[in-house]
Amino acid sequence: MRILQITIDNLRVFPHLEVRPDAGINYFCGGNGAGKTTILEAIYLSSRGRSFRHPLAGPMIRHGTVDAMVGLKLSDSGDDNREHRLGLKRSKSVFECRFDGRDITKRSELAALLPTQWISSQPQTLLEGGPGYRRQFVDMGLFHVEQDFLKSYAELRRILRQRNALLKQRSSSSLESWDSPFALAAQNIHAMRQNYIADLLLRLSQIVSEWDMGFAVSSRYLPGWDPLRPLSEQLREKRDTDLRMGFTHIGPQRSDLRFSVDGADADKLLSRGQQKMLVIALNIAQVDAIRMRRPDLDPVILLDDLNAELDTSNQGKVLAAFRERRVQAFVTGISDPPPEHREAIAMFHVEHAAVDPGHET
Ligand SMILES: Nc1ncnc2c1ncn2[C@@H]1O[C@H](COP(=O)(O)OP(=O)(O)O)[C@@H](O)[C@H]1O
Ligand SMILES: [Mg+2]
Question: Among 347, 318, 321, which residue's Cα sits nearest to residue 335?
Answer without folding.
Answer: 347
